[in-house]
UniProtKB/TrEMBL annotation:
InterPro entries, A to Z: AAA+_ATPase (IPR003593), AAA_lid_NorR (IPR058031), CheY-like_superfamily (IPR011006), Homeodomain-like_sf (IPR009057), HTH_Fis (IPR002197), P-loop_NTPase (IPR027417), Sig_transdc_resp-reg_receiver (IPR001789), Sigma_54_int (IPR002078)
All copies of domain Sigma-54 factor interaction, residue ranges: 143-372
Listed Pfam families: AAA_lid_14 (PF25601), HTH_8 (PF02954), Response_reg (PF00072), Sigma54_activat (PF00158)
Localisation: Cytoplasm
4-aspartylphosphate modified-residue sites: D53
GO annotation terms (biological process): phosphorelay signal transduction system; regulation of DNA-templated transcription
Keywords for this protein: Activator, ATP-binding, Cytoplasm, DNA-binding, Nucleotide-binding, Phosphoprotein, Transcription, Transcription regulation, Two-component regulatory system
SMART domains registered for this protein in UniProt: AAA (SM00382), REC (SM00448)
Name of the protein described by the UniProt record: Two-component system, NtrC family, response regulator
């Protein structure tokens, strides 16, 4: 696809020459003499590079540059200026022009500058597409779940995203805390700026300090050059600090200062560096309890805990499991070119009833395994890992679904009655077989039928 070059000059001769020269080089050219018309054209069309004269009626090249730089910062602007007006060209560069060429110009000089400008335009387009892809991938709508618990989380994300406030995300490992952090970033005004992530548990304290704050050359053995840290890399955007509860007391003090002042020094440095960042922190430990135990600073906790989002474990939002399972099934079928179509009802019941100690991450891994190993069109119980089908785990999960406060005697009676009914139905209402399946005598089974007023067909 040819790059679209917009040429703006009130001198007709230059327009004709430029249009012919650029079209011969394979560019798509739009030549205009009216600056106001050019600005209207920019609103309606995709332009890769703008070439504009400096002196024009209605609007000067400088005014056009300022408008384009403000409204279309991804478009490189080349300024053309008459020989002897170098000062104005230098001023245009200061205002954001990509380059300037003097009239009369050589064809080689113009084409070289245009080629460099189109390369920059391609880079801007790639970056823009990447940001759009990331926003689409990590936007709010990609957090899967319609349970009451997840609706509350999504509401919190939606409210917190536009603000500058620090956010603390708490939840068990595997619940998707980083996905929440990314959704906050890509739903905020910082979405076009960096999202930088660091796992505070993955690095030793010394390495983590350098990773966060950067270091100066010679500050420690092996520091052969100065290096920017994550705080500097995230300037203008969001810094995600995962496993924040693992910070040492010394690093907690340094982080507290950054949160208070938005300033810090590199390791081994003395110059203060000021940054504009938003902090989103996450932890799988109870920081309030850590404060009580003395392992986490109380003042830092309150600095982090401005907006708190608690991500529920998967066992507390079981109604989301079928949605997540279907999502991962589609994902891994596409990746593995698999023809698996769906889960059988029994398999889905086991998935929904399992405890999922590893939460969404574990579910994702199980579904990927099933897609890879399944040989049929549907994933059945036999395709599931043994731990998912474990009866003790399934029973524990069923108990977890019961209300926290209940009458034990009444609840046990209801469970026993349900088991009697199920045994009867599963054995075609043959009472002898139903009793055998429950491991009790026929006479005891008959007693329980009478006790719970269960009628049988046979």
């Amino acid at each position: 696809m040819a790059h679209n070059i917009l040429v703006l000059d009130d001198e007709r001769n230059y327009l004709v020459v430029l249009e012919a020269l650029l079209e011969e080089a394979g560019y798509s050219v739009t030549a205009l003499s009216d600056p106001e018309l050019a600005l209207t054209y920019l609103e309606e069309s995709e332009v890769d590079v703008l070439v504009t004269d400096m002196k024009m009626p209605k609007l000067s090249g400088r005014e056009v540059l300022e408008r384009v730089h403000k409204d279309y910062p991804h478009i490189p602007v080349l300024i053309m200026t008459a020989f002897g007006s170098i000062e104005s060209a230098v001023e245009a560069m200061r205002l954001g022009a990509f380059d300037y060429i003097s009239k009369p110009f050589s064809n080689e000089e113009l084409m070289l500058s245009i080629a460099k400008a189109t390369q920059l335009a391609d880079m801007h387009r790639s970056n823009r597409l990447l940001r759009e892809n990331l926003q689409d991938r990590y936007g709010l709508h990609n957090i899967i779940g319609n349970s009451k618990a997840m609706m509350h989380v999504l509401t919190m994300v939606d409210k917190a995203a536009p603000s500058r406030s620090t956010v603390l995300v708490e939840g068990e490992s595997g619940t998707g805390k980083e996905l929440i952090a990314r959704a906050i970033h890509f739903s905020s005004s910082r979405k076009d700026q960096p999202f930088v992530s660091v796992n505070c548990m993955a690095l030793s304290p010394g390495v983590l300090e350098s990773e966060l704050f950067g270091h100066e050359k010679g500050s420690f053995t092996g520091a052969v050059a100065s290096r920017r840290g994550r705080f500097e890399l995230a300037d203008g955007g969001t810094l995600f600090l995962d496993e924040i509860g693992e910070l040492t007391p010394e690093l907690q003090v340094k982080l507290l200062r950054v949160l208070q002042e938005r300033k810090f020094e590199r390791v081994g440095g003395t110059q203060e560096i000021e940054v504009d960042i938003r902090i989103v922190a996450a932890t799988n430990v109870d920081l309030a309890e850590a404060v009580k135990e003395g392992s986490f600073r109380e003042d830092l906790y309150y600095r982090l805990n401005v907006v708190r989002i608690d991500v529920p474990p998967l066992r507390e939002r079981r109604e989301d499991i079928p949605l997540l399972a279907a999502h991962f099934l589609q994902k891994y079928c596409e990746e593995n070119n698999s023809s698996v179509l769906a889960f059988t009802p029994d398999a889905l019941n086991y998935l929904t009833g399992y405890e999922w100690p590893g939460n969404v991450r574990q579910l994702q891994n199980v579904i990927e395994r099933c897609v890879v190993l399944s040989s049929g069109e549907n994933i059945d119980v036999d395709d599931l890992p043994a731990e998912v089908c474990d009866e003790e785990s399934q029973f524990k999960s069923a108990v977890d679904l019961l209300p926290a406060e209940l009458n034990l005697s009444d609840t046990l009676a209801k469970i026993e009655a349900a088991l009697v009914r199920r045994a009867l139905a599963r054995n075609d209402f043959v009472k002898v077989k139903a009793a055998e399946s429950l491991g009790i005598s026929k006479s005891l089974f008959q007693y329980k039928l009478k006790k719970y007023k269960v009628s049988g067909h046979k």
